[in-house]
Amino acid sequence: MNLPNKLTIVRICLVPVVVALYLCIPADAGIVNEATHLGIRNLLVLLVFAIASITDYFDGMLARKHHWITSFGKFADPIADKMLVNTVLILLVWAHQANVVAVLLMIARDLIVDGLRMSAAQSGEVVSAGFFGKLKTVLQMCAIILLLLNNWPCALFGFPLASIVLWAATLASLYSGWIYFDKLKKYVLESM
């Protein structure tokens, strides 16, 4: 097993760590910023999320640079990404830190795009992420960071940057989903 695949597995293994930290540490434990009620739980989850996100960057970079792209990597890498991001978003909704509608729309889009990709793959068509798909991922990660920081430092000024970035991620998600649908609908509609 090459290094990029090992990094993907590490990312998958960090998902239950994020869940355990988020669910086992009380939200108000070790408040480090009274103004935003930022506690140690969110900081620890942010640290693990950052480590997992860094593995995502390096596994892709190493796989492309050294031509270590494998079938396992093509399969597991996007699953690991979605497991990490969607798990954290669901936890944030559970704790009333993220808008449930935005998160449901993004998860629904992911399910639809995965279905479209599977249909295309059965016809031999491999579809890589486009610009708006990559933008969606960047915006999701930025939103998660801001939400885990309880919108610090913008919360001090009453500016809802975390919510704005979450909705921007949702719009990018829906638009990239439409692009995938428009591009791949022939694989789904041909059997109707």
Topology summary:
Layout: H1 3-24, H2 40-65, H3 71-94, H4 100-122, H5 131-148, H6 161-189
Helix pairs in contact: 1-2, 1-3, 2-3, 2-5, 3-4, 3-5, 4-6, 5-6
In words, what does this structure look like?
The mean pLDDT is about 90. Helix 1 packs parallel to helix 3, helix 2 (about 40-65) runs antiparallel to helix 3 (about 70-95) and helix 4 (about 100-120) runs parallel beside helix 6 (about 160-190). The protein has one domain (about 5-190): CDP-alcohol phosphotransferase transmembrane (TM) domain (Four Helix Bundle (Hemerythrin (Met), subunit A), Up-down Bundle), CATH 1.20.120. The protein is mainly α and about 190 residues long. It is about 75% helix and about 0% strand. The chain contains 6 helices and no strands. It is globular, with a radius of gyration of 18 Å. One of its GO terms (biological process) is phosphatidylglycerol biosynthetic process. Its main location: membrane. It is a multi-pass membrane protein. It is found in: Cell membrane. InterPro entries: CDP-alcohol_PTase-I, CDP-OH_P_trans, CDP-OH_PTrfase_TM_dom, CDP_ALCOHOL_P_TRANSF_CS, Phosphatidylglycerol_P_synth.
Short description:
This protein is mostly helical and 192 residues long. Helices cover 74% and strands 0% of the residues. It has one domain: Four Helix Bundle (Hemerythrin (Met), subunit A), CATH 1.20.120.
